[in-house]
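User: Hey, my collaborator sent me this sequence without any context and asked if I could get a structure. I don't really work with proteins. Can you help?
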Amino acid sequence: MSQQHSNPNEGIKFVLQWLKNHKPEYLENKTGKAKTKVYECIMQWVIDYINKVTKANIFVDEEFDMNNILSWVKSFMYVRDFMEIEFIDNDDRDDRIYMIQLLLIAKGYNCDLNGNYTKYTRESVVQFKKDNNITSSKGPIVNWEVWLELLSI
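Assistant: No problem. I've predicted the 3D structure and written it out in structure-token form, which is a compact way to encode the shape of the chain:
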């Protein structure tokens, strides 16, 4: 069963180090607190992923405003549907799963970080939804409401 870290800062430090090693382009020109950098980097990765796969043209300038982006995601149905994750098999692999895993770790949950929707990741998603009273989807399904909560600082 997934558990939360005893020290929430451990998750942020871990995720920041992972981003430095695997997605350094998202850390360029980022200043401020580690927690803010982590969420801004992952949000940019989410936006780039949506742009790449859906051919959308979402642009975020240096006046990055998480609330505006979250409102935008909430209002566009095709983005909401596209970001839903219902993976069942451990072999299912996707950048969205890495994003979910990193966000869960940043929130203090223990889960795998391998891009696969494993049992431990599913358990962490279910616990996160329970902890945040998210009832709009059953079990380990990650819908737009889960994304919004995960991306909220």
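In plain terms: The helical segments are 8-22, 34-54, 66-75, 77-82, 95-106, 119-131, 144-151. You can pass these tokens on to your collaborator as they are.
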